[in-house]
Specification:
Blueprint (H helix, E strand, L loop, with lengths): L1 E9 L4 E9 L4 E4 L12 E8 L4 E3 L9 E7 L5 E7 L9
Antiparallel strand pairs: 1-2, 1-4, 2-3, 4-5, 6-7
Bound molecules: zinc ion (ZN).
The site of zinc ion has 8 residues, from loops.
């Protein structure tokens, strides 16, 4: 497990962070629950995980708990195409 920080960015620029861990084998991020009730948060802009070396991993906007990863796909005419997909093979965003 990789220790780090889970950050969610809301419209208006509010950022909520919490301690989190990244499972490097599955890509799952487990964050401590954050109490956001007192904040005026409406629209979630993006979420990311930052490890202790300041590397940033974008978190899937559909499942909210897995990082996005780049995968190569066969394109038209024997070319390769790199696409960003969710680490969770069961995620709806991968369909
Ligand atoms: Zn996902």
């Amino acid at each position: 497990m990789k220790k780090g920080t889970f950050t969610s960015v809301w419209d208006g620029g509010d950022e909520v962070t919490s301690t989190a861990e990244l499972n490097e084998e599955t890509g799952e991020v487990i964050a401590e629950s954050v109490d956001v009730e007192d904040l005026d948060l409406e629209y979630l802009e993006r979420e990311y995980f930052t490890d202790e070396e300041e590397n940033e991993f974008r978190i899937c906007p559909t499942s909210h708990s897995y990082i996005m990863t780049n995968k190569m796909f066969y394109g038209i005419g024997h070319t390769y195409e790199e696409r960003e997909v969710c680490s969770d093979p069961d995620c709806e965003s991968n369909e």
